[in-house]
């Protein structure tokens, strides 16, 4: 691999997709990604009543499956999906995990079926329905729609404003920015990890870290796998399949949005190589695997994409390393509990920067492609996507819900297809 091979290499990256870091650097860079995704990945099972170690295990295995399916060409991490939470909570209450597991498998199989269809008939339609004027605002929405989550993590304690929490978040943000801007060499690749460590130390000093779970945790703890057909008498749960399978079409739009961001960061077109069918296949098989071992469905994580944007370390080896650590730590109770003890303001402070990085890359797409906002068409498409997505608009029909990101993507695609290139008042006589 040479620097002159611009088709396969992004010279702006410190480590490009196929670049392999030294062993010592690999360890630290991978742990940085592990810390970044850990909070969200274990939060989902906690909200629905599952074992967090199972979610950690399934996310690591799912990420490795994704890397295998995409021929190790796409740097992405797959963690627990938030899109299914409401439905999974209902299924857990009425039927228990067996129903959730079948729903996760059904959702994953929807991905697999769509991937097979795209493999057969191609994905050229992606460029037609997702031009820069649609992609840019969608990427902005992906970043800014998470702003409320970052703010709540940074400021709230038990749903109440807490100045101590906010101070820790601002300190974490400040030191991360300083590390990112003023450090050189290897240290410039790990500003997120350094920021988390410094924020954690301050959180310990001000007394907002709870070590009780660390003290109670065992060094070795086997995750409570709930493999289908082993821990209970198998039976079908049609309600789970019917309610969770359609949500896969919603998460697909978010999946494609994340691939768009990665395209921009790495200066590649992953829709064509290795192909959209491979990215969907990897995502789908990851959820199928999660359903079999007892975890929630998985999806690609914006937090880790934010780390890629900030550090310019795009190596798939680093993401694979994070996946391996997730699997290992799922068996080490003390380490899992220690990472889980990182308080929310530390994660919130980091998120201010990470989610903003994602949104900024959406603006770069518009600028780099010289989208003409003197045309009313472009203004209309961008305006609708931004307000629908950032405003938190959603459509709910029973247990089926279109999130703001999915709904804004749908509106953008429709407007792009139906609006003329020029308004009547802009046409030349």
UniProtKB/TrEMBL annotation:
| Membrane-protein topology | Multi-pass membrane protein
- Keywords on this record? Membrane, Transmembrane, Transmembrane helix, Transport
Compartment(s) where it occurs, according to its Swiss-Prot or TrEMBL record: Membrane
Assigned protein family:
Belongs to the nucleobase:cation symporter-2 (NCS2) (TC 2.A.40) family.
Q: Which InterPro entries match?
A: NCS2, Xan_ur_permease
State what protein this is by name: Uracil permease
Q: Mind telling me which GO cellular component terms the entry cites? A: plasma membrane
Instruction: Tell me which NCBIfam families the record gives.
Output: ncs2
**Where are its TM segments located?**
26-48, 98-118, 130-151, 163-183, 190-216, 236-262, 316-339, 345-367, 379-395, 401-419
Q: Which organism is it from?
A: Ligilactobacillus agilis DSM 20509
Q: What is its main location?
A: membrane
Q: Which GO terms describe its molecular function?
A: xanthine transmembrane transporter activity
Superkingdom of this protein's organism: Bacteria
């Amino acid at each position: 691999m040479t620097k002159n091979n611009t088709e396969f290499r992004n010279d702006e990256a410190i480590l490009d997709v196929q670049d392999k870091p030294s062993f010592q650097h690999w360890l630290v860079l991978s742990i940085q990604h592990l810390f970044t995704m850990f909070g969200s990945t274990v939060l989902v099972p906690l909200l629905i009543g599952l074992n967090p170690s199972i979610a950690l295990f399934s996310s690591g295995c799912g990420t490795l499956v994704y890397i295998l399916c995409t021929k190790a060409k796409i740097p992405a991490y797959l963690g627990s999906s938030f899109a299914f939470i409401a439905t999974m909570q209902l299924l857990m209450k009425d039927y228990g995990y067996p129903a959730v597991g079948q729903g996760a498998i059904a959702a994953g199989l929807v991905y697999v079926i769509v991937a097979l269809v795209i493999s057969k008939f191609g994905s050229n339609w992606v460029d037609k329905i997702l031009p820069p004027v649609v992609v840019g605002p969608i990427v902005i929405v992906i970043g800014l729609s998470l702003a409320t989550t970052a703010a709540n993590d940074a400021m709230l304690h038990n749903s109440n404003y807490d100045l101590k929490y906010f101070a820790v978040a601002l300190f974490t943000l400040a030191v991360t920015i300083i590390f990112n801007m003023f450090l050189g060499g290897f240290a410039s690749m790990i500003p997120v990890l350094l920021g988390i460590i410094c924020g954690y130390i301050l959180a310990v000093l001000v007394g907002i870290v709870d070590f009780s779970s660390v003290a109670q945790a065992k060094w070795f703890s086997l995750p409570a796998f709930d493999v289908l057909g082993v821990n209970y008498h198998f039976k079908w749960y049609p309600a789970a399949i019917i309610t969770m399978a359609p949500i896969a079409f919603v998460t697909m739009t978010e999946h494609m949005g994340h691939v768009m961001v990665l395209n921009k960061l790495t200066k590649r077109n992953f829709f064509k190589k290795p192909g959209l069918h491979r990215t969907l296949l990897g995502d789908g098989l990851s959820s199928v695997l999660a359903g079999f071992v007892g975890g929630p469905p998985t999806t690609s994580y914006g937090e880790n994409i934010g780390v890629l944007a900030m550090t310019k370390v795009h190596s798939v080896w680093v993401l694979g390393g994070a996946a391996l650590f997730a699997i290992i730590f799922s068996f080490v109770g003390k380490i899992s509990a220690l990472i889980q003890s990182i308080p929310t303001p530390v994660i919130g402070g980091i998120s201010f920067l990470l989610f903003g990085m994602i949104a900024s890359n959406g603006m770069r797409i518009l600028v780099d492609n010289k989208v003409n906002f003197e045309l009313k068409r472009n203004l209309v498409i961008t305006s609708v996507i931004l307000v629908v997505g950032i405003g938190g608009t959603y459509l709910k029909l029973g247990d089926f819900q279109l999130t703001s990101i999915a709904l804004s993507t749908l509106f953008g695609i429709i407007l792009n297809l139906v609006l003329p290139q020029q308004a009547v008042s802009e046409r030349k006589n």
